[in-house]
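Quick review question:
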């Protein structure tokens, strides 16, 4: 599997979500980690399968890849020709807080 770069803040969000889920529901941290791995594979193989997000220049190709089980989405954008995860965003908290990471 090809890799996908993570913005440092997105990596921190991933760790925070894993810890939170595991503390509140033992085993759910591992389930979320497995689902994130599946999403990464999908992003690498089918980069246009995410939901396009409006309000960004087309060359950034900003997309949300939503988790099937959890209320999180991986926000991915292309900067300088490289696809990167810019946020692991909870779908019901502070929409768009991560936008400054892309612009």
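Suggested answer, residue by residue:
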């Amino acid at each position: 599997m090809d890799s996908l770069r993570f913005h440092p803040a997105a990596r921190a969000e991933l760790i925070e979500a894993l810890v939170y889920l595991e503390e509140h529901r033992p085993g759910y941290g591992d389930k979320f980690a497995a689902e994130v791995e599946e999403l990464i594979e999908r992003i690498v193989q089918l980069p246009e399968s995410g939901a396009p997000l409006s309000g960004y220049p087309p060359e950034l190709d900003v997309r949300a890849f939503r988790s099937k089980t959890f209320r999180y989405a991986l926000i991915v954008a292309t900067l300088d020709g490289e696809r990167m995860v810019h946020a692991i965003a909870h779908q019901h908290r502070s929409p768009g807080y991560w936008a400054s990471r892309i612009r």
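Why it works: The domain at 5-92 is CATH 3.30.2310.20 (YaeB-like fold). The chain has two helices and five strands.
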